[in-house]
């Protein structure tokens, strides 16, 4: 994101949020022009050498070459733009899929192109000074960056090898060329290679990357963004903003995400103008598709369970709309439904859960609560309980590898002057002996009663069972899912937090907003909830 | 049982003149009964369910008729309720029969009318089995159970409470009654039940619980200290020693559902996990 800023025209430098906050449409064109300009420059250096065949670099047509030069990107990018415009007119999701698939290749190469450009620019600045000192020749400065850039790239490639498998191959080549140490020779050699890559690049873009490529190349917890670079034109900015917030960890956990998602849906419905040729419900469901595809990378990454529930229910509501009514009526109806859902599932549900848990805490002699990381519901429970009970003590276990969110919990609890103890996951053995009850949050409950929670929660449940203390899980009924199994290693679309499931025999009770329920009664809650929504 | 009968009689008395007054009277009667020293869990749940059942009169009848007719409805429904309960024990006995084979060794704890009736029924159908009964201190109620069993010709042995671990290896099945069945699927029964259940689980012996549906209680205890005091102690004890309950021996304990195999009730045979749902159905 930062690199993009370096290339583009001066943007408001003081905006801390990513460029995604700024409307997307002018940017791609800017980049496009800029890339074209740079491509022209490179072309002008040595047109003849472009035809010479350099020593072969063992590149598969599938793997992304290291120097994804902008020249090659321009053509598919233009294609992509051309694709998008008729796609928008048709508005069918299939077209979009194709366009997005191609664009993923684009994204990769653009990113690499930008990296290379940035380096080249940097080196150009430094090399200019050197070149001025050394030769003062007009040609040398362009050659110098060309040489130094690959050399530096070779070094930088080392940490990035998982992403670009062809880079080691290139690195080898550059290493051998570097051994010579003569300024001009290496420059020429590397330039030859770079031009060859350019020609290879053209071949590469015709092939779509397969899903397998994604899974092996990208680790389960991704670091880079997939939402922004080539968004289709028919995605509402509210969804993109949501994606950006998740990207920048402004939304932590399912609860905040759900609330934000509600707001996004309301914005979408409000701004929505239905197509003239279709009835309202059909047209809105058609146009909802690309938004969701954008967020979930065309279904490659599933939505987190609770969000999936919400989307499914929303689609159901749309389906049941009475199309004979006025459009504004329908819109208000949908908006009201979303607002009601937010109210029931957040304000009321949390109150109910807090009440039930406190009634359980009342009967305990020593209220020493052990909890994991930060769940907003658990925080509410503890804050409300502290008003009623004096002898509350909270033990917070945290995961330092995953954002240490327990620290925020610690701060908020300390502000309420609740005595707390904080430890990392390796101190669980000590802390569990001090506590008398374990209180966990969750992101979903499966059909069998298994609890889907942050990675590390099952350790608390297991140790609690070993020392015979009860485990309570605060679960909202909207997070109950009709699934039996979860693919835990796949990362979900909006939340990147690592997830695991806790077996149902480790959990003493699920505190839901309907009543306190044993985990084995999860299907009963599902049934009750679905019936409720039907009404 | 007697408690409910007395309540129906109460309903018959012409004291209240509105439906609300009637319900108030009934709840007062409930409170009165709670104040006796009898098994509180059963009384409470039974009364609660009775109240709900009898108040479930259809709307039409409520609106149209005068109060006398409404009261008659209440009494009628009360009687229906009682009849159902009277039958529940025999239903449970019938359900339990397939579990008893000949030459089986059964272990039971303390004195439970339901278990007694089920065992007698099985004996009446010709099964030959041996029953071990724990003494169940402090009130020695196991002795009463053993006498009644012997009277009907069943081979019985009275054992010490502490001898359960010793005898468990030769036992085939363990049977308990219950004073209350909780939402978790666990039970509240005479003190000592938990120990026997844990021992049975450790040696892989099946544990069956017999309870009528009126004993279902809408509570969710997490552990022993989480069970409400009104189930553990007699009312008189609670009143006199409100603060110094630590010295008092509880009369009952809570057995969590993981130590129970099946619950045999007049609504059917359930696993502990399913009891919670049945309970909710009852109470709605």
UniProtKB/TrEMBL annotation, chain A:
Alphabetical list of Pfam families matching this protein: IF-2B (PF01008)
UniProt cross-references to InterPro entries, sorted A to Z: IF-2B-related (IPR000649), IF_2B-like_C (IPR042529), NagB/RpiA_transferase-like (IPR037171)
Subunit (UniProt): Component of the translation initiation factor 2B (eIF2B) complex which is a heterodecamer of two sets of five different subunits: alpha, beta, gamma, delta and epsilon. Subunits alpha, beta and delta comprise a regulatory subcomplex and subunits epsilon and gamma comprise a catalytic subcomplex. Within the complex, the hexameric regulatory complex resides at the center, with the two heterodimeric catalytic subcomplexes bound on opposite sides.
GO cellular component, one term: cytosol
Cell location: Cytoplasm, Cytosol
Top-rank lineage group of the source organism: Eukaryota
Record keywords: Cytoplasm, Initiation factor, Protein biosynthesis
GO molecular function: translation initiation factor activity
Name of the featured protein: Translation initiation factor eIF2B subunit delta
Presence of the UniProt keyword Ligase in the record: no
Source organism of the structure: Panagrellus redivivus (Microworm)
Residue segments, region Disordered: 1-191
Similarity comment text for this entry: Belongs to the eIF-2B alpha/beta/delta subunits family.
Basic and acidic residues composition-biased segments: 78-132
Upper taxonomic lineage: Eukaryota, Metazoa, Ecdysozoa, Nematoda, Chromadorea
Biased composition annotated in UniProt, kind: Polar residues: 176-191
Residue ranges with Low complexity bias: 63-76
Automatic annotation (TrEMBL), chain B:
Subcellular location: Cytoplasm, Cytosol
Domain of life: Eukaryota
Coiled coil location: none
Any one cellular-component term (Gene Ontology): cytosol
Pfam families the record matches: IF-2B
Keyword annotations of the record: Cytoplasm, Initiation factor, Protein biosynthesis
InterPro entries hit by this protein: eIF2B_alpha/beta/delta, elF-2B_alpha_N, IF-2B-related, IF_2B-like_C, NagB/RpiA_transferase-like
Protein role: Acts as a component of the translation initiation factor 2B (eIF2B) complex, which catalyzes the exchange of GDP for GTP on eukaryotic initiation factor 2 (eIF2) gamma subunit. Its guanine nucleotide exchange factor activity is repressed when bound to eIF2 complex phosphorylated on the alpha subunit, thereby limiting the amount of methionyl-initiator methionine tRNA available to the ribosome and consequently global translation is repressed.
Family: Belongs to the eIF-2B alpha/beta/delta subunits family.
Official protein name in the record: Translation initiation factor eIF2B subunit alpha
Origin species: Panagrellus redivivus
């Amino acid at each position: 994101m930062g690199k993009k800023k370096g290339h583009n025209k001066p943007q408001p430098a003081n905006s801390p949020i990513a460029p995604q906050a700024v409307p997307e449409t002018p940017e791609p064109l800017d980049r496009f022009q800029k890339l074209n300009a740079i491509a022209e420059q490179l072309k002008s250096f040595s047109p003849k050498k472009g035809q010479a065949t350099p020593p072969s670099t063992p590149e598969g047509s599938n793997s992304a070459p290291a120097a994804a030069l902008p020249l090659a990107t321009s053509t598919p990018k233009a294609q992509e733009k051309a694709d998008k415009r008729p796609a928008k007119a048709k508005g069918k999701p299939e077209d979009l899929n194709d366009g997005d698939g191609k664009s993923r290749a684009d994204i990769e190469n653009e990113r690499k192109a930008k990296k290379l450009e940035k380096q080249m620019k940097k080196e150009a600045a430094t090399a200019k000074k050197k070149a001025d000192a050394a030769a003062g020749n007009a040609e040398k400065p362009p050659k110098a960056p060309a040489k130094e850039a690959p050399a530096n790239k070779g070094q930088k490639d080392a940490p990035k090898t998982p992403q670009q498998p062809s880079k080691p191959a290139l690195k080898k080549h550059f290493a051998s060329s570097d051994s010579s140490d003569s300024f001009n020779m290496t420059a020429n050699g590397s330039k030859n290679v770079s031009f060859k890559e350019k020609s290879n690049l053209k071949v590469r873009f015709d092939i779509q990357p397969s899903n397998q490529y994604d899974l092996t190349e990208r680790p389960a917890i991704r670091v880079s963004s997939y939402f922004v670079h080539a968004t289709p034109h028919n995605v509402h900015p509210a969804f993109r903003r949501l994606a950006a917030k998740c990207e920048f960890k402004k939304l932590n956990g399912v609860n905040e995400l759900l609330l934000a998602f509600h707001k996004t849906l309301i914005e979408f419905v409000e701004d929505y103008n239905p197509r003239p040729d279709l009835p309202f419900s059909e047209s809105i469901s058609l146009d909802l598709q690309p938004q969701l595809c954008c967020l979930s990378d065309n279904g490659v990454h599933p939505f987190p369970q609770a969000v999936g529930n919400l989307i499914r229910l929303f689609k159901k509501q749309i389906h049941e709309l009475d199309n004979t009514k006025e459009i504004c009526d329908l819109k208000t109806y949908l908006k009201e439904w979303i607002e009601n859902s937010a109210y029931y599932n957040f304000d009321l549900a949390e109150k109910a859960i807090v009440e039930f848990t406190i009634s359980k805490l009342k009967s305990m002699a020593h209220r020493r609560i052990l909890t994991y990381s930060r769940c907003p519901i658990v925080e509410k429970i503890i804050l409300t309980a502290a008003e009623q009970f004096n002898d509350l003590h909270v033990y917070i276990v945290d995961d330092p590898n995953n954002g240490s969110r327990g620290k925020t919990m610690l701060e908020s609890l300390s502000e309420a002057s609740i005595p707390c103890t904080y430890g990392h996951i390796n101190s669980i053995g000590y802390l569990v002996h001090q506590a008398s009850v374990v209180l966990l949050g969750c992101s979903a409950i499966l059909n069998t009663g298994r609890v889907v929670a942050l990675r590390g929660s099952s350790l608390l449940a297991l140790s609690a069972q070993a020392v015979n203390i009860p485990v309570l899980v605060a679960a909202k009924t909207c997070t109950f899912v009709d699934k039996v199994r979860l693919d835990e290693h796949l990362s979900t679309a909006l939340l990147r937090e690592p997830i695991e499931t806790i077996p149902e025999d480790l959990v003493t009770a699920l505190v839901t907003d309907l009543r306190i329920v044993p985990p084995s009664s999860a299907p009963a809650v599902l049934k009750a909830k679905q019936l409720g929504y039907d009404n | 049982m007697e408690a409910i009968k007395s309540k129906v009689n109460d309903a018959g008395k012409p004291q209240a003149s509105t439906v609300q007054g009637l319900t108030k009277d009934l709840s007062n009667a409930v409170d009165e009964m709670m104040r006796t020293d009898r098994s509180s869990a059963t009384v409470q749940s039974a009364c609660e369910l009775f109240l709900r059942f009898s108040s479930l009169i259809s709307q039409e009848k409520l609106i149209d008729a005068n109060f006398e007719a409404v009261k008659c409805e209440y009494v009628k429904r009360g009687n229906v309720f009682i009849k159902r309960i009277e039958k529940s024990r025999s239903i449970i006995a019938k359900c339990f029969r397939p579990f008893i084979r000949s030459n089986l060794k059964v272990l039971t704890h303390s004195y439970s009318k339901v278990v007694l009736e089920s065992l007698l029924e099985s004996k009446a159908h010709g099964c030959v089995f041996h029953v071990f009964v724990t003494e169940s201190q402090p009130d020695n109620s196991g002795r009463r159970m053993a006498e009644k069993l012997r009277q009907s010709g069943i081979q019985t042995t009275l054992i010490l409470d502490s001898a359960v671990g010793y005898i468990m290896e030769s036992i085939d099945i363990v049977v308990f009654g219950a004073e209350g069945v909780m939402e978790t699927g666990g039970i509240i029964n005479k003190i000592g039940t938990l120990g026997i259940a844990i021992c049975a689980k450790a040696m892989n012996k099946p544990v069956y619980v017999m309870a009528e549906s009126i004993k279902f209680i809408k509570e969710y205890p997490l552990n022993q200290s989480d069970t409400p005091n009104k189930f553990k102690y007699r009312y008189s004890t609670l009143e006199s020693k409100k603060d110094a309950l630590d010295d008092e021996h509880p009369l009952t304990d809570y057995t969590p559902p993981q130590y129970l195999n099946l619950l045999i009730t007049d609504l059917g045979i359930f696993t502990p996990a399913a009891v919670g749902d049945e309970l909710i159905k009852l109470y709605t």
